[in-house]
Amino acid sequence: MKIIEGGVTAAKGFEAASTAAKIKYQDRTDMAMIYSQVPCECAGTFTTNVVKAACVKWDQQVVKSGAKAQAVIVNSGIANACTGAEGFGYCKDTADAAAEALGINADGVLIGSTGVIGKQLPIDRIVAGVKALAEKKNDTLANGTEAAKAIMTTDTCEKQIAVEIEVAGKTVTIGGMAKGSGMIHPNMCTMLSFITTDAAITKEALQKALSDDVNDTYNMISVDGDTSTNDSVVLLANGMAENEVITVDSESYKTFAEALHEINEYLAKKIAGDGEGATALFEVTVVGADTKETAKTLAKSIVCSNLTKAAIAGHDANWGRILCAMGYSGAQFDPEKVDLFFESKAGKIQIIENGTAVDYSEEKATEILSQEEVKAVADVKMGSESATAWGCDLTHGYIDINADYRS
């Protein structure tokens, strides 16, 4: 596997574009398009929130139908959530506009929206935006990067990555872009991720690879404990690499799944580290658990603890908050056997051993916790299973952003 420069336009046959439709923002691009030169197999995973945006319902319908997908239209600024039949109708209007502009089937147009809940989309601007996107699309790195920027809301930077792998002598490329900064919580978190690949792969294998990996990547991140109405991860495969078709039982499936994991983990960590108001990516690994589920539960509980997140913001090795979060997680463990370490590029330090504090340097701990990426490792000494979760620190900036988000 080789990480290469690029995002959604890295794989053969994929193009992208961005435009300023002025849906909410007046001073930046706010619509993006991903287009494949040929129809694609598509897979998707979506929010577990009972309240689902119209675009989520639309995309679930497309993925379930088995239709070949050929385009994705994404807008930022308005989420098209809690908008009733009118909002769902706007999804059809958007798909119809894309079908006309691109000469493709409307049944294969996927849609993503992010932004304020409860407002109706200005469909005239959306339709005009689709036409502009169709005219501007190409397969350049620059267009892919600009598309990644156009889907941001409170994000501070675009998020994209691409990798290459070998499948039976053929080079296969996978690229992706994502957005997410607030309303991020395990179990699909407002988080959007769009992944493209030129791999020839069955729909069954594509969906399995995505569904299995989401549990260890996007479902292991949290910024604020709010699971969004719009969370979507969509994966398109157009087969233009002309490799031997990947099936669930083929030897190349594992290679593909590992590459997809690289994409998803990178994007998930970028989302967690770019949490609203955040100054640090906070990574938590639990080792020595009796089961994978125990490790996941403990890691998630620590990374979701607001008190722990505030301590990370203050560069304070307040380890009692971590042990407390583990204790109310619902997982069973012996707190008197727990070892805890903090580490970053500034070094590694042990904070507790067998549930009680060791003689450590507060100054060194503060130095370690003052870095842009901070890691906590908890060893529960129960077995050989482990899991990692990602989040961020909690600062005053989070309140500043969300207190007046609609304005």
TrEMBL record:
GO cellular component terms, A-Z: cytoplasm
EC number of the protein: 2.3.1.35, 2.3.1.1
Protein keywords: Acyltransferase, Amino-acid biosynthesis, Arginine biosynthesis, Autocatalytic cleavage, Cytoplasm, Multifunctional enzyme, Transferase
Function: Catalyzes two activities which are involved in the cyclic version of arginine biosynthesis: the synthesis of N-acetylglutamate from glutamate and acetyl-CoA as the acetyl donor, and of ornithine by transacetylation between N(2)-acetylornithine and glutamate.
Residues that hold substrate according to the record: T153, K179, T190, E276, N402, S407
Name of the gene: argJ
Record InterPro entries: Arg_biosynth_ArgJ, ArgJ-like_dom_sf, ArgJ_beta_C
Keyword Chloroplast (UniProt): no
Swiss-Prot/TrEMBL catalytic activity: L-glutamate + acetyl-CoA = N-acetyl-L-glutamate + CoA + H(+); N(2)-acetyl-L-ornithine + L-glutamate = N-acetyl-L-glutamate + L-ornithine
Protein name (record): Arginine biosynthesis bifunctional protein ArgJ
UniProt-annotated site: Involved in the stabilization of negative charge on the oxyanion by the formation of the oxyanion hole, residues: T114, G115
Locations listed in the record: Cytoplasm
Principal location: cytoplasm
Matching HAMAP family: ArgJ (MF_01106)
Catalytic residues identified in the record: T190
Subunit structure and binding partners: Heterotetramer of two alpha and two beta chains.
One of the record's GO molecular function terms: L-glutamate N-acetyltransferase activity, acting on acetyl-L-ornithine as donor
Organism of origin: Coprococcus comes
Keyword Coiled coil (UniProt): no
GO BP term (any one): L-arginine biosynthetic process
Pathway stated in the Swiss-Prot or TrEMBL entry: Amino-acid biosynthesis; L-arginine biosynthesis; N(2)-acetyl-L-ornithine from L-glutamate: step 1/4; Amino-acid biosynthesis; L-arginine biosynthesis; L-ornithine and N-acetyl-L-glutamate from L-glutamate and N(2)-acetyl-L-ornithine (cyclic): step 1/1
The family this protein is said to belong to: Belongs to the ArgJ family.
Coiled-coil stretches: none
